[in-house]
Amino acid sequence: MEYLIISASLRSTSHSRAMAQRLTAAYAARQAPSALVDMRDYALPFCDGEQTREHPQVAALTERIAKARVVALAAPIYNYDVSAAAKNLIELTGSAWENKIVGFLCAAGGQSSYMSALGLANSLMLDFRAVIVPRFVYATGADFSDGKLVSPRVEARIEQLAETSMKLRYV
Ligand SMILES: Cc1cc2nc3c(=O)[nH]c(=O)nc-3n(C[C@H](O)[C@H](O)[C@H](O)COP(=O)(O)O)c2cc1C
After folding, report:
1. Is 119 touching ligand 1 by the criterion CB < 6 Å?
2. Nearest-CA neighbor of 92 among 68, 64, 62, 128?
3. Count of beta carbons in the 10 Å neighbourhood of residue 149
4. Which among 9, 76, 112, 131 counts the fewest CB atoms within 10 Å?
């Protein structure tokens, strides 16, 4: 699928998943071919840098990422970074991220972790020559009510992420 959205939270009432679903709807409204992958549907091993890349679920995810032109990672912010589950996915799927256009949707508790995904963004740029979409979506608990996204500002940012990721081309 040209646009792959990955929901990396393992939480049942995840805010980043709600944003991933909203981005999926934004792509659908633009007739852009997209698919949503929910990490809760996978039981991935921790990356050991050896055999784990051959795990069947890892191989399936690697293929889906490799086939996408744009990958949007919706992730929780834990300890001033993306969650370990999100980072583990990238460690497991490694070079599938080469030359991708990558967008971020981050769910955090508060505003102070705003730049937390930049370490991962830098590694994607340096390791895999990924191009990071300069439309960063960052939401806090205040943007949700009963697990639902209720912030027009965040919704507008998601629309901008969809628009910009569709325009960006890797040359
Ligand atoms: C282990 C853990 C660490 C967290 N660390 C941070 C943090 O560093 N900064 C922050 O703003 N929120 C932090 N939070 C709050 C989460 O980012 C927040 O609950 C967010 O909604 C999680 O994303 P999700 O709803 O998609 O699972 C943390 C939560 C947990 C459980």
Report:
1. no
2. 62
3. 18
4. 112
In 3-state terms, what secondary structure has residue 62?
A: helix
Going by alpha carbons, the residue nearest to atom 3 of ligand 1 is: 78
Residue to probe by mutation, ligand 1, list 7, 16, 38, 78, most atoms within 8 Å of CB? 78
Q: What is the pLDDT of residue 170?
A: 86
Cβ(147) – ligand 1 distance below 6 Å: no
DSSP structure string for 17-51: HHHHHHHHHHHHHTT--EEEEEGGG--PPPP-SSG
**How do residues 55-104 score in pLDDT, each as one tens digit?**
999 999 999 999 999 999 999 999 999 999 999 999 999 999 999 999 99
Any ligand 1 atom below 6 A from CB of 68: no
165 Cα–ligand 1 center, Å: 26
Taking the C-alpha atoms of residue 110 and residue 108, their distance in angstroms, rounded to an integer, is: 6
> Rounded to the nearest 5°, which phi and psi values hold at 28?
-60, -40
Rounded CA gap, 67 and 93, in Å? 12
Main-chain dihedrals φ then ψ at residue 31, nearest 5 degrees: 55, 30
